[in-house]
Design goal:
Low-confidence stretches: 139-145, 159-174
Mean pLDDT: 81
Strand content: 5-15%
Distance between the termini: 61 Å
Number of helices: 11
Largest sheet: 5 strands, parallel
Order of helices and strands: EHEHEHEHEHHHHHHH
Number of domains: 2
Radius of gyration: 19 Å
CATH topology of the largest domain: Rossmann fold
Oligomer: single chain
CATH superfamily of the largest domain: Toll/interleukin-1 receptor homology (TIR) domain
CATH architecture of the largest domain: 3-Layer(aba) Sandwich
Strand order of the largest sheet: 2-1-3-4-5
Structural class: alpha/beta
């Protein structure tokens, strides 16, 4: 079975974007498997896809509102997580996964591909994958260390690349908080809702006028009043709300 660097999963509505990503990655010597292009003519479709997922090192999920409606994408992500494959969600729209997908993506990693144009985001994705693939040993199929190594390196690259990713986006830092305050708020919110906290903080910070408004907006993401008060209290310790 041939090993691929990246398996690209996408809904039909995002087909054009998915194949743009493939062209971008392959131009940078990253091996990609994508359906239907790489499905063998004599192969059974589902079996070929499962084999391709099993023989890949990272799954790139092109994520949009239509992804939430795609049963096929959900099955591919489920198989990838079951196989221990690292999944990198590449969000092309500012939406969050429905619960059935959130279950599988809550411990995975995200890159945002908005606002347009998308080319700088494709470049960022390429650089991210290059770093992750270079740092991850290409273990043989079926080895447990393959899965843990892939997730560990995606996490490590995500952590050390924050500054580079922001620079590539040319995105100004929100004026309502320092990078250190935003990072601490991400940590505090993640205690209650997991990794998606990073994206909620970034989204809310883009339009919040001050730290107090930001902390109150984020607390509204929590269903439990006790959790909301705990989060607001933690933000108060960070100087996010008046004492």
């Amino acid at each position: 079975m041939h090993t691929h660097d990246v398996f690209v999963s996408y809904s039909q509505a995002d087909r054009e974007c998915a194949f743009d990503i493939v062209a971008w990655l392959e131009a940078r010597d990253i091996g990609v498997w994508i359906a239907p292009r790489d499905v063998s003519p004599a192969a059974e479709w589902a079996e070929d896809i499962i084999d391709a997922i099993s023989s890949s090192r990272i799954m790139v999920l092109v994520f949009s509102a239509s992804t939430n409606e795609s049963v096929q994408v959900r099955r591919e992500v489920e198989r990838a997580v079951h196989k221990g494959l690292a999944v990198l969600a590449f969000r092309v729209e500012d939406v969050l996964p429905v619960k059935s997908l959130e279950y599988f993506l809550s411990s995975q990693h995200w890159l945002d591909a908005f606002p347009p144009p998308r080319e700088p985001h494709y470049e960022r994705l390429s650089a991210f994958l290059k770093a992750a693939l270079a740092a991850t040993p290409n273990h043989g199929m079926g080895e447990p260390s393959r899965a843990s190594a892939g997730q560990t390196e995606l996490r490590r690259v995500a952590e050390v690349s924050v500054a580079e990713l922001v620079a590539l986006d040319h995105a100004p830092r929100p004026h309502c908080a320092t990078p250190e305050q935003l990072h601490q708020m991400e940590i505090e919110l993640a205690r209650f809702i997991g990794p998606v906290a990073k994206h909620l903080v970034r989204h809310a910070a883009a339009s919040a006028v001050d730290l107090q408004q930001l902390s109150l907006r984020l607390s509204a993401e929590l269903d439990c009043e006790q959790d909301r008060q705990k989060f607001i209290g933690a933000c108060r310790m960070l100087g996010a709300t008046p004492l």
